[in-house]
Amino acid sequence: MFMALRLAATGFLLAFAATTHAAEWIEGKHYFLIEPRQLTTAQAGKIEVTEAFSYGCPACNKFAPIADQLKAGLPANAQMVYLPASFNPSEDWPMFQRAFYAAQALGLVEKTHNAMFDAVWKTGELSILDASQQRLKNPLPTIEDAAKFYARVTGIKAETFVATAKSFGVEASVRRADMLMRAYKVPSTPTIVVNGRYRLDGASAGGYSQLIELTKWLVAKESPPH
């Protein structure tokens, strides 16, 4: 009897806490409704959590460990995907976007995603900055330079990577990514989109730990009732 009462009390407290916390999240302040809702590419029955990012974005580089934490903490019915942005060509974002989709087409993203950030921001292999001059490089890294990185990290032939990057399939992915960025009204990176319906970022959520909590809450909001 005592155990049953204890379990009931615990369930009540958890439900109360969830309700109280949910009341803290305000649409239009902490997260934003995307209209019209966009179709997702997630597996059937999965809630899609999208990170809009660029390897050339310093804020995305700093966010990368948080993105990994978010991905690892998602419930079983949620799936993390990446949406590379191209809207900052002065910092080579279109090239990094194309490189991502070539890597995705070749099944290399899981192995190379964080390594790409390191190549841009740590080792300098694909750096967009000239450290000696404290300015952007001219010329910026090319898709051929990215191909050399992928060849070194994965063993794939550089020419195969370049050919894939210039393929019709990657071109279609690039066009779709640019369309989704506009449809999601992504103002900056990194930005999180939940199931093609809600947009949020660290600033709107009130910090990165709150972003993780809010993303999980929106996933639950999108999940069908049991």
Features:
five-stranded mixed beta sheet, 9 helices, Glutaredoxin, disordered N terminus, two-stranded antiparallel ribbon, about 230 residues, alpha+beta, about 55% helix
What is the compact description of this entry?
This protein is an alpha+beta fold. The chain has helices at 2-24, 58-73, 93-105, 109-121, 143-154, 158-165, 168-184, 202-205, 208-222, and strands at residues 32-33, 47-53, 78-84, 129-130, 135-136, 191-194, 198-200. It has one domain: Glutaredoxin, CATH 3.40.30.
Can you walk through the features of this model?
The protein is an alpha+beta fold and 226 residues long. The chain has one domain (25-222): Glutaredoxin, CATH 3.40.30.10. It has helices at 2-24, 58-73, 93-105, 109-121, 143-154, 158-165, 168-184, 202-205, 208-222; strands at 32-33, 47-53, 78-84, 129-130, 135-136, 191-194, 198-200. A 5-stranded mixed β-sheet has the order 1-7-6-2-3. Helix 3 (93-105) packs across helix 6 (158-165) and helix 3 (93-105) crosses helix 7. Residues 1-20 have low confidence and may be disordered.
Explain the layout of strands and helices.
Elements: H1 2-24, E1 32-33, E2 47-53, H2 58-73, E3 78-84, H3 93-105, H4 109-121, E4 129-130, E5 135-136, H5 143-154, H6 158-165, H7 168-184, E6 191-194, E7 198-200, H8 202-205, H9 208-222
Parallel strand pairs: 2-3
Antiparallel strand pairs: 1-7, 2-6, 4-5, 6-7
